[in-house]
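ugh ok fine here u go
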Amino acid sequence: MGISPHTVEWLRNQGYDSVHLAEEGLQCLLDEEIIHKVRIENRIVLTIEIAHGGYGYPNHGP
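structure:
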């Protein structure tokens, strides 16, 4: 589950460049697709899920 659109709006009002996937019609993307999108756009993911915490670490492996 992602964060609330209200939270994204609050962040935007604070001056942060914030986008909710639903605003772009992308709320049904798979986790892997979301990670691909944020890497391309040089963004971060804010979520309330804890099950996928490993995605936040860059892959510096072989």
